[in-house]
Amino acid sequence: MKLLEQRILQEGQVRPGNVLKVDCFLNHQLDVDLLDEIGAEFHRIFGADGINKILTIEASGIAIACMTARHFDVPVVFAKKAKSKNIDGDVFTSTVHSYTYGRDYDITLAKKFLGPEDKVLILDDFLANGKAMKGLLDICEQSGCTVGGIGICIEKGFQPGGAELREAGYKLASLAIVDSMSDDGLTFRAQ
Amino acid sequence: MKLLEQRILQEGQVRPGNVLKVDCFLNHQLDVDLLDEIGAEFHRIFGADGINKILTIEASGIAIACMTARHFDVPVVFAKKAKSKNIDGDVFTSTVHSYTYGRDYDITLAKKFLGPEDKVLILDDFLANGKAMKGLLDICEQSGCTVGGIGICIEKGFQPGGAELREAGYKLASLAIVDSMSDDGLTFRAQ
Question: What ipTM describes this predicted complex?
């Protein structure tokens, strides 16, 4: 998606440890017009796939999921990272290792929101090692739902998450794939 | 807002400890059509107030903020609850006590996203004791921005947050104010 690649080139910042900061428009400050274009693009890719629910994980995924759900006219459900007093009853749980935060955490989703009748599109802002995505896929498997597709804004193509998901047979669409990055700049994979 | 009150009556669940669960449509599963109507209502109330940015806090606030920002055509910025390796440089910080999670936590916002040139609308899903809101107002004060208004989906009118903000002179709009709740039902404040 050229529009997203341009914004990454204009405003993204490469930091030590393979960090690509896009906090000006994607995950701290949010450019809602860009998110709407991203949602339209995901609908172009997955719109004919019978999706009836969008699944994501707090916090950055929520904005992308909501702005995409408008185009599909389906609800969003998001996995939570912290255990709240307000989540009770039966939940699906999976454990995720976060490189960003340097720790393991549990993600939870109330069982009533996902089941065998659902065909979900899973969305997230980044895909790198794919740990959070594996947690979401684990929850999908527990629920018996069908994974209709996986949509990612920015994939770090030099980390293994994307390749593993493609090998596993998922319909994965990453709107921008960064194949290399350094202080000198970024290279995107031609798509 | 009658539409929101109706959904609360239909799908909200009262739980011990003054908990009102609205996870079917507002903060776990998200009804994007309803959020769009909520955004339109906030625009009706605050649309003439010169708002140039919407401020919220992760995670539940993000969906409401994004769907409202579309109506204002302004960016969203959200305060983060956990310290990420990816947030560097100067940040505004404030400490918040959460009754829901039973602990104190820091919220942070990168300084580059809020300053004296901004007039913000602060949005959140719930207002009860107002602790998270006070943290956001503290960050606004640190930044020198102007608070143009505060928009809340559901205020618990029997807890002190709303009254304190009105006494302090803020333009506060709560789309539904629950004045009492029990196993027998809910009472909304006439507005």
Answer: 0.94
